[in-house]
What we know:
Layout: H1 8-17, E1 22-26, E2 34-38, H2 47-59, E3 66-70, H3 76-83, E4 87-92, H4 95-107, E5 113-116, E6 130-136, E7 140-141, H5 152-158, E8 159-160, H6 166-176, E9 180-190, E10 202-210, E11 216-223, E12 231-237, H7 240-246, E13 253-259, E14 277-285, H8 291-306, E15 312-314, E16 318-321, E17 324-336, E18 339-348, H9 372-387, H10 398-412, E19 415-417, E20 420-421, E21 425-427, E22 433-435, E23 440-441, E24 448-449
Parallel strand pairs: 3-4, 3-6, 4-5, 6-9, 7-8, 12-13
Antiparallel strand pairs: 1-2, 9-11, 10-11, 13-14, 14-18, 15-16, 16-17, 17-18, 19-20, 19-24, 21-22, 22-23
The structure holds biotin.
Amino acid sequence: MREPFASADAEAEIVRLSKGSEKVHWNPVDSTFFDLLIPPTVYPPRHDSDLLARRISYLGAGRGRSLLEIGCGSGAISILAASFGWKVSACDINPFAVAATRGNLELNHLQGDVREGGIGPEPFPFEQQFDLIVWNLPYIPLEEAGDDFLGPMEEAALLDTDSVGLAGRLLTSIANADMLALNGRILIVGRKCARLGTFGFAHRTWDKLSFDDGEELFLTCLWKPYEGASNQYVKETGSTNSDLLQSGGIGSHLRTGKQLAGKGRRGRVWTSIEGCYAGSWIVAENSVISPGNLQLAGGLAVLESLQHESLRLKWPNDILIDNRKVCGVLAEGRSLGDGARVVLGIGINLVKGANDLDIEIASIDELFEIDAAALDITLHAEIASLLEERNDIPSLDHQGTRERVLEHIRNFGRPVTNGVIHDSFGINENGELILDDGTIITDGEDIEWA
Ligand code: BTN
């Protein structure tokens, strides 16, 4: 594999640029057409652009809200957004794309502020906050580019040459420069991105596009987790679960450095020493979500946050290293008139010394070092990714959560009841374990595992 963007490519690029522009009559959504003029080296609207276009049209009228398009290419998405009444800002590192977007906005009698630049070492060309930030990411990693390069400008629109991945770079820049307005949303199109929660944003797949060659593209929506809800750290408290059961507000989160009267399942005591993780969330208030599904989400959020192959999930939500417990999740409810408030508490042994008296314990520092404050940012994002409900984000996918949990559980083992090993089992709509003989298991402590 040779270096992209080598000086030898410059000559070919100049030749390419002497060709004329292409005319495109773009029809992203029913009865919406735009004429676009696309100069050489500029990314034209393709299936990935259509994915973004359909979602923006689904979001409806912009009503003057601000939208930023990064990597605007021919300007197709910016033009569509402007036509829906968004106040559009757009940028691209390719000056020909900037010119094309400006020209195409004008051609379609629309307005936008288009500047040269993007996410990278140079200062970002905009400083204000945006209600919606969209980016059809260059998603092909350099290793897959082979030797057959297009011109440097086109490569830049396709290749992710960033060492941490452009999605991660984008989210870090948005967080550092505080670019997202209150209740703002981010939409990215690209391959499935791992570890999005580590950047502190909640994320959920909205749409997926599969190609004949096996390529899959995802449209992911990201947002600030449980924005507006209380998010507190206290040096010490009795139990974060008990504290939140007394308070209110969906998504409220409380973490403590020292929990003096931590509660475990079945009335047990949960002891966590300083440096370990203890935190809780109000995950439901007067809601119809079954507590079983909420419990499953707790364990899955921990696995997604810690991402280590040695961590195994035992139904419903114990997390183990070699059969030694490293994390426990406790869902507790309190009635509220007709409904209930559910608090989800998570305790993780990050360092040695914590003990849960009746079983052997493990700690995360056997695998890697992580401090509770850093973990909290990811965990908060992953809990919201699985459980937060808002009308302008993808809807909750409890079935998807159950399927992911089931995959982890199958890796862990097979349930055993009365000496019988059950090779086949599933998780029902309430998050309960359902065995091949029809038995429903509601409590993880009622079964053994083989
Ligand atoms: C278990 O027994 O496995 C569940 C342990 C849950 C412990 C956590 S720590 C934070 C939250 N507050 C509590 O009092 N308990 C939970």
